Amino acid sequence: MSYTLHIKKDIKEFEIGIQLMGGQKFMEALERFKTCVDLAPNQLANIQIALYKKLHVDIENLKIRIVICELYIFSQRYQDAILEIEDIIQIDPEFTQSYFMLSKIYSKVKEKEKQGIKSIFETAFSSGITDFTVLDLLAKIYFEERNDSKSILLYERLLKNKPQSLHYLKTLSDLYFRIKD
């Protein structure tokens, strides 16, 4: 009996999620889809099929792509999320939510994927994208790698955008002190 209710609940969440997508309520739909996947992980495939069908009609709809990415992240399918985020960046390199999602994934992936994310962020930085998510994560990566020259360039750029940041000033002074030795 409870198993039947469990199945009916995940189907209901799926149906409500689809209705919300039709009403352009993407984040509410995402929450319903997450609940559905929690109740029945095998429903992820059905949700993804439905979302990709919607995306096929409007291939550059970033909101649908965000829902897809968030579901991949929720399901710990980080490589799939990274691929989808790369598509988002191709469509709109200045869409900041894509970099935020990559920063969420960064600490959860293996070294190979970390290097790929780092490369995406470096490309964004060299292209003039000044989103703080990009700059902050790159600065953290360079600092951890002890790549002082790149860290200094990044923190100098961060200070241009936020000159009163005590954290940036302290970190930059620590870097200058570290390269002096």
Please tell me about this protein's structure.
The termini are far apart. Helix 1 packs antiparallel against helix 2. This protein is mainly α and 181 residues long. The protein is built from ten helices and no strands. The protein is elongated.
List keywords for this structure.
mainly alpha; single chain; 0% strand; 181 residues
Topology:
Layout: H1 2-22, H2 26-39, H3 43-57, H4 62-74, H5 78-91, H6 96-106, H7 111-126, H8 132-145, H9 148-161, H10 166-180
Short structural description:
The protein is mainly α.
How would you describe the oligomerization state of the chains in this entry? single chain
Look at the helices and sheets and give the structural class.
mainly alpha
What is the global morphology? elongated
Low-confidence stretches: 1-5
Distance between the termini: 71 Å
Name the helix and strand elements from N-terminus to C-terminus, one letter apiece: HHHHHHHHHH
Q: Report Rg.
A: 20 Å
Task: Please give the largest β-sheet.
Answer: none
Proportion of residues in extended strands: under 5%
Q: pLDDT average, as an integer?
A: 88
- By DSSP, the count of extended strands is 0
The number of distinct helices, counting runs of at least 4 residues, comes to 10
